[in-house]
Amino acid sequence: MSKRRVVVTGLGLVTPLGCGVETVWSRLIQGQSGLARIEHFETDDLSCQIAGIVPRVDGRNGGAPDVDGSFDPDAVMAPREQKRIDDFILYAIAAADEALKHSGWEAADERASERAGVLIGSGIGGLQTIYDASVTLHERGPRKLSPFVIPAMLINLASGQVSIRHGLKGPNHAVVTACSTGAHAIGDAARLIAYGDADMMVAGGAESAITRLGFGGFGAARALSTGFNDNPKAGSRPYDKDRDGFVMGEGAGVVILEDYDSAKARGATIYGEVAGYGLSGDAYHITAPAEDGDGGYRSMKMALDNAGMTGGDIDYVNAHGTSTPKGDEIELRAVERLFGGTADSLVMSSTKSAIGHLLGAAGAVEAIFSILAMRDGICPPTLNLDNPSVETAINLAPKAAVKKTVDVALSNSFGFGGTNASVIFRRAD
Amino acid sequence: MSDVLARVKKIVVEHLDVEEEKVTESASFIDDLGADSLDNVELVMAFEEEFDIEIPDDAAEHIQTVGDAVKFISEKTS
């Protein structure tokens, strides 16, 4: 069967740089950082005490009712409803609301709503909900568990809640691939449209693992930065010689994907086309990337082949680049290998330097940054890149955004378990 | 208004986010106050907590209205 073209017609963001696509993007390209010390729970006994926290109207991470882009849970749903969902679902709903509004999509009739689906994933799901319920179970027994424990923490309830809220009756699905969740969600959702299973998909990722359990667990795996607790904005520094682990972020990224013909027919603004998608497994280690970077290389290569492109066609790469000592260089070498002699014309940056690593939301948020790079002809910076640990011909956009016409952008996401995803976006009218 | 009714009303208003006037003794949690089956479970748990009683599942199934709850609780606590 001939596959249909899939385009992006709406964007939604909840990130440590705030909520709302334009607010976040303008702060990102100005070089602002969303990283801060954790103040909302006890961190004295944790090795990492900094994070990319969504600013809230209650004062968290500098948020306030009169500060632009502050997240207001009460604007999303009534307090009573909030108690029934974990924060990752709250973020997903907020980002999906923005993306849908932004796209202008509305179900023309019942048939249209049956052709519209949701595919939002999360790497971890409702970690705090699981923790709180475990404590209740241990201290007070099973009769004291809320009936909302399970629907609050289930990963696919982000898709479920968005579907219920907007009456989207098409495919209802979720991806769980750790830190590549968001990229896989967009790639897989695009395929559902390309193969005719849906005409519109709300796709993305959401995460809220900035909890004591999340920090204890990732800390035990020695994955987090520990040396910048007194200087949080310097903690995420991909490719820099002083990097010492990732800084966790939270939030959600959601895009509206549509069949090209449907989008054109309704006169939608098209932000780009999902041109290629690649996936691979390292088959190597549960947390460490394979030294030769072959998994990431094959993921990118598959995406290029899928798009009918070569490395030289790519103008900007939004890197996985988590700021871990090993991973950054492995990815960089894989990109160099793929792009060969054209590497010197490439710009590649890690926006995790500004917002931290949003785990299951990262791929979706970074896909949106890649799309905006195309829209505005500007590649966001890699903050804190004072002294690169390696030499490369690639422009890593150190500390300042790079103006460049971007017709094609590639976004990489790699996750625990050795799972890799690459998505290519191209400009489309 | 009995003390039990007042306390039950307060819980229902808080949990279901409904106006107090609607919480009459004949009001059904599901049909009149917008609750679903999970809300009902949560309400019963809240009654247990407030009145320090245990409401077994088979009894909980028969608590469909505000009046049912008041009646059950009054018998248990008298």
Structural write-up:
With 429 residues, chain A is an alpha/beta fold. Chain A has 2 domains: 7-266, 3-Layer(aba) Sandwich (Peroxisomal Thiolase, Chain A, domain 1), CATH 3.40.47.10; 277-426, Peroxisomal Thiolase, Chain A, domain 1. Chain A is 33% helix and 18% strand. In chain A, strands 1, 2, 5, 6, 7, 8, 9, 10, 11, 14 and 15 form an 11-stranded mixed β-sheet that branches. Chain A has a two-stranded antiparallel sheet with strand order 3-4. The two termini of chain A are 24 Å apart. The model of chain A has no long low-confidence stretch (mean pLDDT 97). Chain B has one domain (1-77): Non-ribosomal Peptide Synthetase Peptidyl Carrier Protein, Chain A (Orthogonal Bundle), CATH 1.10.1200.10. Chain B contains 4 helices and no strands. In chain B, helix 1 (3-16) packs across helix 2.
Outline the fold blueprint:
The complex is a heterodimer of chains A (429) and B (78).
Chain A: E1 6-15, E2 18-19, H1 21-29, E3 35-37, E4 50-52, H2 73-76, H3 79-82, H4 87-103, H5 110-114, E5 116-121, H6 127-140, H7 149-153, H8 157-166, E6 172-173, H9 181-194, E7 200-207, H10 212-220, E8 251-259, H11 260-265, E9 272-281, H12 294-307, E10 316-318, H13 327-339, E11 347-349, H14 352-355, H15 362-376, E12 378-379, E13 402-403, E14 408-415, E15 419-426
Chain B: H1 3-16, H2 37-51, H3 57-60, H4 66-77
CATH superfamily of the largest domain in chain A: Thiolase/Chalcone synthase
User: What is the count of DSSP helices of chain B, taking H or I runs of 4+ residues?
Assistant: 4
Which assembly state applies to the chains in this document? Answer: heterodimer
- The average pLDDT score of chain A comes to 97
Within the CATH hierarchy, at the fold level, what is the topology of chain B? Answer: Non-ribosomal Peptide Synthetase Peptidyl Carrier Protein, Chain A
Structural class of chain A: alpha/beta
- What is the gyration radius of chain B calculated from CA atoms? 11 Å
Uncertain spans of chain B, ≥5 residues at pLDDT below 50? none
Low-confidence stretches of chain A: none
CATH architecture of the largest domain in chain A: 3-Layer(aba) Sandwich
Indicate the CATH architecture of chain B.
Orthogonal Bundle
Biggest interface between chains: A-B, 8 and 8 residues
Helices and strands of chain B, in N-to-C order? HHHH
State the separation between the terminal residues of chain B, measured CA to CA: 16 Å
